[in-house]
Fold:
Amino acid sequence: MAEALQRVRQAWDEVWDRFVASDPGLIRLMAGLRTVASIVLTLAVLAAFQIPVSLLVAGAMAAMVATFAISEPLPRDQAVTLAWGLPTAFAAMSLGALLNRYVIIGDLFFVALIFAAVYVRRFGDRGTSLGLIGFQVYFVSLFVHARVATLPQLYGTLFAAFCCAAVARFVLVRATPESTLQRLRRAFRARLAQVVEAQMALVGETAPDKLDKAVDDLRRQTARLHECALMIQGRLEDGTRDATSAALLQRRVADAEIAAERLGVLLLKARHFDSADTLTLHLPDAPALDAPAKAPVEDETTRRLRRDLAGLHLLISRLAPNDRGTGLAVIRNRLLDYREDENLPRASLAVQDAFRGVGEAARAVLGLRLALDGPQDETDDSPETTRSREEFDAEDVAIVREEEPEETLAGLQRPTTRAAFQVGVGSALAIAGGELLSSQRWYWAVLTCWVVFLNTSSTGEILVKGYRRLLGTVIGVIAGVVLAGLVGHHTWTAFALVLLCVFGAFFTAPLSYVLMSFFLTAMLGLLYTLLSTYSIAVLELRIEETALGAACGIIAALFVLPVRTHHHTDRQLREVLDKLGEVSSAAVEQLSGGPAADLLDLARELDSALDNLRRSTRPLTHPITPLRVRRRTARYLVALLETCAYHARSLAATAELVPSSTRIAADPRLERAGRRIRRNIDVLIEHLEDENATSEVESGASVASMLEGPEAVGPKPGSVTFRVLRHLQRLHEGVVGLARPLGVPVAETRDRGGKAVQTLPSGS
Structure:
């Protein structure tokens, strides 16, 4: 019996770990549960007073708004915003009831309210939340046909809804920044363990037909690890006790992520993937590898590698403070010993690099444990483990965080101001068109126009979001018809299904806007059933109003202060190139003996810029885009930039070790190669800013041939200098490779023998 319970507990722990990894920090789960809890409480309180169903619907919608509109990370800020939100809701409901009878005046005020709700986003999260509450509560007043005579009851309903939302947020489903960060840490550990599992599967796979699946799984798990690391970065400042602790944890998370990604690439090289150097593990839809892998021979070295990966997985999964013991220390010491060349097995250079990567990953796991759990028992440490601890101590002392001033825009250049004018014009068009379709439910077109502008930055993004909302609405209407027929006049059954739809909408919102729209539209059909206004014609009208609202939003985005997609992506591309230049230059400078810098912080800024670029290129890479050539170009650019970012991060991680390591010495000869890479990046940026620029990218000979002096014969294969040069060479090739899709001329140079040299990126 005890063994059965133990197996059940282990199976549950495994399932829970995978769920935690799929929802980092349980952020989506908490959002869905919090919203459902606030609605349930509101319905329970209002039902006790036996109020009409229309007020129950208003209370449920107000509770939902009061929950999802609050976005501040700190509980005290959330409480202040919620307190200000109640009078804002009272004002919006009052104006909705007063102006509901006056068509023209009411429409003009609605447009003004929409403009103000978007404009106040310039004041940060609180302005965004209050604007959202004002708009949504006014929408609720239209939905339930609020009248002046019912205002006292509506005030009581709003008061109950906001109080219940506060209880759900601060008591029932409480989420502090510290607890969220703690859950994100556990999610990162689970993601890291899944990456190592995928690496183990890659090493152990012998069937050629299953090998591509193993590579795709490795790429997918690495992308998810990267996503979780970025989420942790966004929660560090509020979830840690001070800036130094935040910087330390950020560095350790970045170390672990880079080490895991590097290990994956080294394992692919050991499996004889010729294009492993340009594999973009962060890119979920990266093109498949062209070069097939040779079937591995199950020799002692392969078995040893699989065993050591299993040991690494054990170290990761036992990161909790109570998981101690001599056995873990023995595994940790054995893996860390691979950082020394004399402990590597007799094998090819690629296989030795894979073992060395295991050692570096074990070091990153040790650093992560020190950052999360503090000092550990050092009685069983090997000399290499002791040396790693000393390196971490030296790095911790050198942590310095400097706040950079944020760039401020004014006037119509400010995104919130531009969006306010766009939404205002689009909403006016939606009101006019919506009135022609239906004088009773024209506000659905306005709501669609409003939401397609949320979290979008260009015309292309608005087009894609409008298409997704329309698709989700059509599917949701079909589901609404089915659910309404099943529910009939069973009020509480309908409310239970509404709660399920609300949970589904908020749980899937970060994953798929189509699914979110589907759940909200299905919920709408149930709400109309509760209000006894359900009909097939109403849901058909919902589709028509949604299409109209999306069209009005797109028209406004095209003709009112437009932000063209290619201009937005060019700006994001310049940002990425600038960050890439900063990381590579700072890393090479430190590797050359220059002053120490916070390289991993720079690398994380590069990752953030890359994520922004990937989001901005989604309209160009979406399947519905008719511009096939631009879609291929955008995918190629992002993939190549991901490759460059990987090598830049690897350089930064190696350079971070220079000040505190006794094995890695600075080499002044690398400075020349760094200058060439930085110059080429500056040339790319110059051509993006000025189409008439005449400067050329310099391809040049290999980076190794640029080393001057008696040691120019090259470093020893497998040494740190050799790996640095390899990353520099691949980074240089990647930067030169960017010139072709960007239309930048490449200068043909000559090597020492006078032969023309034209460097092309690996795998191009």
